[in-house]
Model the fold of this input.
Amino acid sequence: MSSNKKQIHAVAGSSGAMGSAVVKELQKRGEIVKTFARKSYGNPDTIILDPFDQEQLKKVLQNVDNYFLCIGLPYSGKFWLENWPKLIQATIEACIHTNTKLIFLDNIYMYGPSPLPIPFDETYSQEVTSLKSKARKIVADLILDAIANRGLKAILARSASFYGPNVINSSLYTSFIDRMLACKNPQTIFNPNIPITYAFTDDNAKAMVDLAFHEEAIGQVFHLPVGEPITLEEIVKVCNKILNANFKLSVMPKFLFKILSMIIPLFKEIKEVVYQYEDPYTMSFDKFKKLFPNFKVTSYEEGLEKMIESFQKN
Done:
């Protein structure tokens, strides 16, 4: 059963691509929104929040109905393992204290081992294979345990790798769009012919808000909507059509990537998730579709065009 009652919402990570998309979706629906971020980024209405500070969270979440947690942490397995559980524990305590519903933007790193089923759903095994996957499993388990045993109201909204306007922490930006806009060929260290499903930020935002308003969703894990499986070579073709260009995708040799992953920290972190590009990595969101059968997923053509336009304007 859905509720049409006007509610108060708070969005943490509101300056990021996903958080700002959630804010826009809520505002589009005429909802009351509070924005939280670690810096104001020039927005006088943003509340400066330390998401690890349980007592501050308890104060700012007073009278808030829904707390959308869209924060990202530095891309480091060690950092994630040390800090994600602390952040989530503070969040759980604050949400229970204020009776606020948590809508957590989760990811899909906890699923394993690879290769995964085609497609995989929310019930697939979680045999962690890396520090990042271990961190995300711990976080999800903390939330699910608090739901089961402490009365936490929460929804885990799991997103595939996402793309969209102003998304910079994505290989589709750093290795593809950023280079193309600089008139350079895109590059990849992954297999360019493996089909993968991606999520569009605006679709994620709409889906998260839909779930927040749906009472039946409370206490559950949902995969957020994704497009049809697409390869990196096909993404280049879509971008070429948008840009009226003819860029060619270059693939880094495996031996070179192996060497670089021993000396460059980012490459070492990426090495942990290469399995997502070694076999088809396609996510099912059938569970979500059963609740929202009329949800329309943005095409890659439209989504990539909006993403490219956002960087052309900057």
Remarks:
- The two ends are 42 Å apart (CA to CA).
